[in-house]
C-alpha cells in the first residue's frame, strides 16, 4: 500500500512565521523522500496556497535583504523537485494578484503572478483532498 504524500494547505501571509515554517517543512519532506530508495517518482508533495498565502505568488512583493524571500525560495524548490504551486484564483484576485488570462478576463491593468505559480479553482484543492491524504495547514 502506497502512502499518499501530505497536502500542505498554506493560508498564512508570507510575512507570518508560519509561511517560513511551511517552506521548511516542504524542504525537509522533499529532501527526505528524495533520499529514500523506493520512492515512487509520481509521489510528490501537494501544496495549495489559499487566503493570505496568495501574497507569496506576487512577483512584485519586495523583501528586504535580511529576510528570506519566500516567493523565490518556493520557486527554487518547485524547480528542483518539479513541484506545482497552485494558488486559489479567487483569493489571489481579491488580493490584487493576477495572471495574464485573468487580467484580460476581468479587465485588470497588468499581471503580477510570479513564475512557477498557477491560479486554479478550489476544485483543485478538492481533488487533492479526495484521496486519503494527510492535510497539514500552515
From TrEMBL:
Q: Where in the cell is it found?
A: Cytoplasm
Hey, what's the signal peptide range on this chain? none
What the entry lists under InterPro entries is as follows:
DsrEFH-like, Sulphur_relay_DsrE/F-like, Sulphur_relay_TusD/DsrE
Question: What Gene Ontology terms describe what this protein does at the molecular function level?
Answer: sulfur carrier activity; sulfurtransferase activity
Alphabetical keyword list: Cytoplasm, Transferase
Single GO cellular component term: sulfurtransferase complex
Q: Name one Pfam family in it.
A: DsrE
Claim: Cytoplasm is one of the keywords in the record: yes
Q: Which GO terms describe its biological process?
A: tRNA wobble position uridine thiolation
UniProt family annotation: Belongs to the DsrE/TusD family.
Protein name in UniProt: tRNA 2-thiouridine synthesizing protein D
User: In which organism is this protein found?
Assistant: Psychrobacter fozii
Amino acid at each position: 500500500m502506497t502512502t499518499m504524500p501530505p497536502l500542505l494547505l498554506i493560508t498564512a501571509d508570507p510575512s507570518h512565521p508560519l509561511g517560513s515554517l511551511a517552506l521548511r517543512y516542504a524542504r525537509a519532506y522533499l529532501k527526505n523522500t528524495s533520499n529514500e530508495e523506493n520512492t515512487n517518482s509520481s509521489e510528490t508533495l501537494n501544496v495549495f496556497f489559499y487566503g493570505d498565502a496568495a501574497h507569496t505568488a506576487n512577483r512584485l512583493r519586495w523583501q528586504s535583504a535580511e529576510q528570506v524571500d519566500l516567493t523565490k525560495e518556493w520557486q527554487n524548490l518547485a524547480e528542483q523537485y518539479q513541484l506545482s504551486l497552485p494558488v486559489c484564483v479567487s483569493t489571489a484576485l481579491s488580493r490584487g494578484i493576477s495572471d495574464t488570462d485573468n487580467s484580460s478576463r476581468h479587465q485588470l491593468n497588468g499581471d503580477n503572478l510570479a513564475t512557477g505559480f498557477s491560479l486554479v479553482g478550489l476544485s483543485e484543492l478538492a481533488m487533492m483532498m479526495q484521496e486519503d491524504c494527510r492535510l497539514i495547514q500552515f
